Amino acid sequence: MKIYVVRHGQTEWNLEKKIQGRVDKPLNEQGKLQAIETRKNILNKKIDLIICSPLLRAIETANIINEGRNIPIKYDTRIIERSFGELEGCLIKDVDFNSFWDYYKNLEYKNVETMYELFERVYSFLRDMKSQYEDKDILIVSHGGVGMPIDCFFSNNIPQGSLIEAGLQLKNCEVKEYEF
Length: 180
What we know:
alpha/beta; Rossmann fold
């Protein structure tokens, strides 16, 4: 079973370096072009199912990638972006953003989803996906925050310090491949 994980294309808030979280922003023109390029890059990959976050930026990315292929798409709230509560919309530079991505600190702050909560829901999704679709190759279209626990799950390693500083955050429309 192969798993391909792609982060959504760029949004205006990505460009402006704002904390996006669950704010439902669409792709900008660059994000749409990134999704088209990703579609071309994975055209020869066997994909039986797309599982997508229900946020608009992920849905738009999945639909662009799926153009001409008609792969079934399912939506799962467990791969929605991490909630940043009252910090959503703030500039990344105005908060200690890297500390919020330190699993071992597990910061609790102003309705921000903790790292433990994020990891538990993503790990639950992956365990269920493995048991439900063991004979399928799957494309997951999600978010930078979700891609980090996915990487930790498959590497069986949670690095010390910020997962962003450890280089685990996918770039917009970057694809990573894993295997169960």
